[in-house]
Design a protein that fits this description.
Elements lengths: L7 H11 L14 H11 L6 E5 L5 H9 L2 E6 L2 H9 L5 E5 L5 H8 L5 E4 L5 H13 L4 E3 L1
Helix pairs in contact: 1-2, 1-3
Length: 145
């Protein structure tokens, strides 16, 4: 298996997508474009990874991750959000509907393996600690919040 790096073509593709999605001041439940650009900068020339995204929402960040990842599993509690993400047609993205804070998701993470996690779910210390622990159980070494 050949390990691919995030290259200029991947980054330019992500920037094209970035131009199609709203910024934080336009859509309160998305991450800022600045965060997404910083993510692209951080990942440039690094190995493509298998990502898990906790809190996929409308898929704005998922679009960017799809350009720089080997694969992305986007998790959201809302079936409709997962459907919207699936409808975006990213071939290396799949979705899962889970309540991130129950034992079913904890069990799921114990039997799966991911390189990196993008965590944007419940924004309080207790929930973020649960997210971190679940991701550690799945082998995550790179965290983006």
């Amino acid at each position: 298996m050949t390990i691919q790096k995030v290259n200029l073509k991947d980054t330019l593709h992500a920037i094209e997508k970035l131009n199609t999605i709203p910024d934080k001041h336009q859509w309160k439940t998305t991450t800022s474009k600045l965060l997404k650009v910083n993510l692209l900068q951080m990942m440039f020339n690094k190995n493509k990874m298998n990502w898990i995204e906790l809190g996929g929402a409308q898929g704005h960040t998922t679009l960017i991750l799809s350009s720089i990842a080997e694969s992305v599993i986007s998790v959201d509690f809302d079936d409709e959000n997962c459907k919207k993400i699936n409808d975006l047609g990213m071939s290396n993205v799949s979705t899962k509907t889970f309540d991130l804070y129950n034992s079913d998701f904890e069990d799921y993470m114990k039997i799966n393996n991911f390189d990196a996690a993008f965590i944007d779910a419940v924004h309080d210390e207790a929930h973020v600690n649960i997210d971190i622990n679940n991701c550690r159980n799945a082998g995550v070494n790179l965290f983006v919040f």
